[in-house]
Amino acid sequence: MKRLTLTSVFALLFTGLSILSLRGAEPELDLAPARWIWYPSQRTLSNTMLMLRKEFTLDSVPEKVSGWILADSRYRLWINGQRVQWGPAPADPRWPEADPLDIRPYLQKGKNVLAAEVLYFGLGDGTSPIGKPGFICKLEVGNRLVASDSTWLVSVARSWPAGQYKRHYVRAFQEEFDANRYPDGWRQADYTPGSEWVYAMELGGRADRSQLATDYPEYLQDYWASNRDVSRIRPRSIPLMREYWVPVSKLAESMWLTWDQDPRTYFEMNTPHSYRADRTPCAVQENDSTWSVVASDGRAAVLTFELGEQVVGFPAFTIDAPAGTVVELLTHEAHEVGGPELLNTHFNAWSRWTCREGRNRFEAFDFESARWLQLHIRNFTGKVTVSGVGLRRRIFPWPHDPAIRIGDPAIQRVMDATVNTLNNSAQDLIVDGMGRERQQYSGDCGHQLHAVMGTFGETRLPRRFLITYSQGLSSEGYFLDCWPAYDRLARVMQKQLGLSNWGPLLDHGVGFVFDNYYYYCQTGDTTHLAETLPRLLRSFDYLTTLMNPADSLLPVENLGIPSVWIDHHGYKKSRHKILAFNLYVSAMCQYALAPLCELTGRTADAVRARAFGEALQQACVRRFWSPERQVFVCNLPWEREEGETRYHDRDLATAVLFDMCPGGKTARSVELLAEEPAEMGFSYPANAVWRLWALIKANRIDVVLNDLRTRWAGLESVSLNNTLQEGWHAKPDNREQWSHCPIAPLIVLQQGIAGIRPLEPGYGRFEIAPQPGDLTDAAFTVQTVKGPIDFAVSGKRGNRRLSFTVPAGTTAELVLPAGEKVPFPPVASEGGDGLQNGLQDGVGRGLSDLLHDGQSGACRYRIDGGRKVELRLRHL
Fold this sequence. Notes:
This protein is α+β, with helices and mostly antiparallel strands. 23% of the residues lie in helices and 26% in strands. Strands 11, 15, 16, 17, 18, 19, 20, 21, 22, 23, 24 and 25 form a twelve-stranded mixed beta sheet that branches. α7 (506-523) packs parallel to α9, α9 runs antiparallel to α10 (603-624) and α12 (649-657) packs across α13 (667-675). The longest helix has 23 residues, at 577-599. 53% of the residues are buried. Mean pLDDT is 93; it is low at 1-24 and 830-844.
C-alpha cells in the first residue's frame, strides 16, 4: 500500500487534493479591489491577535449597504463600538467562505469606524486544519467603497500575549487578556490612534483566492499553495449564527482557596496538590444577579455558577475590582457540587483576565460548551463585586422551530434533550460535540443530517456539510474524516512514526456516501454532486485496492495510515469488525453510490459499484453466516478458538436493513436486536440508530419505545443538562462529553412513529407508515422541502385517531394494517406486498425501502396534496 512521507503530509493539501477541485461547481467571490492585508511583518506567532481599524465619513446613511469580510483564523467585528458578528465559519483553507456584512443599522451620519479583532491560530484547531495570516474586507456603502488596503490601521493587540501556548491538542486558543493593556475606545469613531498603530501591509495575492495563495511566509510549518489556482474564496453558504443572552440560573457554590504553589504554574502544567480548599462560602448575594466578595488573608475566591441547561456560546461577566485582580474563568459541561474545587478537569477549559481599576466587562473571544461557569478570583484586596454572569448563546437560525408534543413524559424529556443537543452540535459546522474537539465527522455523526432537515426544515447546513467534508480527501483516496480540522493531518504524521493507533476513519468515509444519497432523497437537490461525487468515486477506488484476495473481504487491521472505527466499545476484538465493515461497504456500494452514479449518467461506475458491493455481501455470507442459527456471527471464523459466540447490533441491523440475510431470513437477527443478549455487543449512542432503524423496519416499535423510556430517558445528561451524552454512562467532573450527537430519538419520531419518508427525491411523493405503538398522545411536525407535515395520533389501538397534513403539490401514500376502512383509493401493489421498490428514474432504493415495516397484508392508499386528513382507525 502506498504511504505518505512526512514531507507530503501537508503537501497533499495543495497537490493531490487539488486535482479533485471543480471550478464552477460552487459560487466564487472576487473581492477586488480589496487586498489581503496584515501587520507589517515576516512572521506571526501562534495565537496572535491583531486589531484593525478603518474610518470613513458619511453625509448620510444610504439605503444600500453590503459587503464581505474574511480572516484567518477568526475575527470579531464592531461598527462604531457595537458588536456585529463573529466568524468566519470553519472551512477548508483552500476554499474559505467570506461572511456577508449587513451593517446599515450600526452606521451614522458623519465619522464611522469599522473595527476588527483578528486571531491567528497558527498551530491548527479542531475547526481549522491549517492556516496563513490574512484579513480582507470589501464594503459598499451606497456609492462609496471601503476596502482593505494599506490605508487601514493595524496594531498588535498586546492585551493578549502573542505566541500563547495551545489550550489542547485540537483547541488552539488558551485565552489570556490584560485589560490594562487594552486601548480604551479604539472601536469608537472618536478614538485617536497612537504610535502603536501603523499602516497595514498589503499581501501579494489576489482578492479571489484564499489567504493560502498570498506571499506571506508561514514559518511554523513552512508550506505554500503550490497550485494557487485551486485556492478560491467562496461566499458564505449558510446564514450567520443567531445570538442571545443566557444568564446563569444561580450561584451553586463558593469557597476559598489557599495557594501553596504559584497558581500560574498550576494552570500551565496542571500541577497536583497546589492549593488547599476551605469550602466556607465566600460570596454574598446582593441581588438577583450580583455577588460580592471581601478579600481574606490573600486567599483566592471561587464562585461556581450553574446554567439552566447545557448551551454553546461566549461566556461573559462583569467584575468591579482593584487593578491587577486576576480572574480565571473555567467552564465545564458537568459538575457535582461538593466535587473538585476547580473545574479544571475538562481539556484545560479556562481563560484568564487581568482587571483594570474599577468596572470590567469581560467576554471570551471563542465560544464554549458549558452548563457550569466558575470564576477563580485572586490577587485582590478589599471588595470585589461580580455581576452579569452568563453566556452569549450562539445557535443556528433555523427556518422553523421544533414542534414536538408527546404525552409520555419520559419520551418528551428525551425529545427535548435531543433538540437541545442538536442546537449545540449543528451550528456553522455539524460536529460531534462542542466541548472537546468540535470536529465534523460523518459516520455516526452524519445521522444529524436527518434530524436537521426533518426537525428544522434546514437544507443549507447539511449541504455545506457535504461540500466541506468532501474537500478533505487525501491523495491516496481516503477522507480525512473530521475535515476541516487539524486532527487527521496530525494523525497521518503520527501514524508514520508509530505514535498513534488512530488514523483517518474509513467507515466514516463510507457513511459519507450515504449522507450524500439521503440528502438527495430528502431534497431532490443534485448540485452538491458536482463537487462531491468525483471524490466519492475516488474513495471507492481506494477501498477496492484493500480487498484481501484470501477471503475477498476488506480488512480492518494493518491498513497503514487509515483505520476502522465502527464502534470499538462494542467489539471484544478488532477482527470482529470485519463483518460490520464489509456489510457497510457493500450496502453503500449497492444502495447509495451506484444510484448516485446512475443519477448522473455514470453507468459504468454504477455497474462497478454494484458488482463490488455484491461480491462483498457474498463473501460475508460465506465467512460469517451461520446456516444452523440463521444469523450472522461476527466471530464465526474464530468462534471455537475464542470459546464464545459474539454478535453485534451493527452487523445484525445492517443485514436486516439492506436485506442481506440469505433467503430473507431475518427473524433471528431481529430477535437478538430486541432481546439484547449478553453475547451481543451494543453500539454507543451515536451509532444506536442502526439498531432502532432495523427494529422499525421489523415492526418492533414496542422495543423502540421502551428503549426511549428507559435507556435514553435514563441518561444522566437528559435529567441534568437537557442533552444527550456521548456514552451510555457519564460522570460529572471529567472529560466525558455531555452534549454529543446521538440524535436517534428524533429520527425514531419522524421515520418510525410517524413513518414519514420520501418515495421520490424531494418529497413529491412520500410515505406515511405510522407505528405509534402504545403512545396515546403525540403531535409533531416533520419538515420537508415541499412544506410541513403536521402529524398527530391519539387514543389506543382499537380506537385510534390519526391526523396529518399533505402539502400542496405532493402525493402521500398511507400504509395501514389490512382491514382498515379509509376513503382513499388503494395503490397497486408491486411484488405482491405493495412495497415501493425505490425512488423513481432508476435511482435505487430510498429511505422507504430501507425502513419500511415490511408487514405482510399491509395496504397502501393514495392521498393527493393540499389537505388535512383525519381518520379513526381500529387496527393501528
